[in-house]
């Protein structure tokens, strides 16, 4: 017997029974779990915790991964980005000078000092200097971009094997859009934090 004939008979004999049948069908369909949504995060999303913006990766390309890099150290950095008010053709602007930050492990122990020329100095005396080879905007408004640095190592120690450093999960660190003529030559320190990931 077709479903159409069954529904027709119920409608003629017992409208209430027909309503109950239709309600059961509707509720049964509603209880079917929806298909698992496909992730908007590409497989090449930068290492580290997920960006705060859920749609971030849909509109920003990911940070390029280090070439055959193996993560050996991950530290949380806090400090300042230092700017100087300088005269420019378009008027006075805050010009980037250097970072000053302390990088600590999960126990809060100081491991690396981050400073001028994108340098990283380990407490054991080994150092690396970074050169920016890739960058993407931060998903946090008014925060430093995420960076990939190719490094040169100096001195024996923990950093002697490091070839790349990522700066990710940045918060803060950006200066105002412009400074005033009365601020020329003044220095501005803008607090920031970020995760630094070291690769060999």
Widest sheet, order of strands: 1-2-3-4-5-6-7-8
Q: Report the oligomer.
A: single chain
DSSP, total strands: 8
Summarize the amount of helix as a percent range: 10-25%
Strand content: 35-45%
Number of helices: 3
Terminus-to-terminus distance: 71 Å
The parts where pLDDT drops under 50 for at least 5 residues are 21-58
Shape: globular
Major β-sheet annotation = 8 strands, antiparallel, barrel
Overall pLDDT metric:
80
The topology string of helices and strands comes to HHHEEEEEEEE
Cα-based radius of gyration, to the nearest Å: 28 Å
Category by helix and strand content: alpha+beta
Main features:
200 residues, alpha+beta, 3 helices, 8 strands, 16% helix
Tell me what you see in this structure:
By secondary structure, this protein is an alpha+beta fold. About 15% of the residues lie in helices and about 40% in strands. An eight-stranded antiparallel barrel has the order 1-2-3-4-5-6-7-8.
Briefly say what this structure is.
By secondary structure, the chain is of the alpha+beta class. It contains three helices and eight strands; from the N terminus they run H-H-H-E-E-E-E-E-E-E-E.
Layout: helices, strands, pairs:
Blueprint: H1 3-13, H2 15-30, H3 56-59, E1 71-86, E2 93-104, E3 110-115, E4 119-122, E5 127-136, E6 146-154, E7 164-172, E8 187-199
Antiparallel strand pairs: 1-2, 1-8, 2-3, 3-4, 4-5, 5-6, 6-7, 7-8
Helix pairs in contact: 1-2
């Amino acid at each position: 017997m077709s479903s159409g004939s069954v529904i027709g008979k119920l409608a003629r004999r017992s409208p209430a029974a027909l309503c109950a049948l239709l309600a059961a069908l509707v509720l049964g369909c509603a209880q079917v779990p929806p298909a698992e949504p496909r992730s908007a995060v590409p497989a090449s999303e930068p290492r580290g915790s997920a960006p705060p913006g859920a749609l971030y990766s849909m509109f920003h390309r990911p940070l390029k991964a280090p070439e055959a890099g193996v993560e050996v150290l991950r530290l949380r950095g806090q400090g300042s980005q230092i700017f100087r008010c300088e005269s420019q053709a378009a008027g006075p602007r805050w010009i980037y000078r250097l970072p000053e930050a302390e990088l600590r492990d999960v126990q809060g122990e100081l491991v690396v000092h981050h400073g001028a020329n994108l340098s990283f100095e380990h407490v054991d005396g080994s150092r690396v200097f970074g050169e920016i080879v890739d960058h993407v905007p931060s998903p946090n408004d008014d925060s430093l971009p995420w960076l990939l640095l190719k490094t040169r190592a100096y001195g024996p120690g923990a950093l002697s094997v490091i070839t790349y450093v990522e700066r990710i999960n940045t918060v803060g660190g950006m200066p105002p859009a412009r400074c005033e003529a009365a601020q020329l030559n003044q220095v501005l320190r803008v607090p920031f934090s970020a995760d630094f990931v070291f690769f060999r």
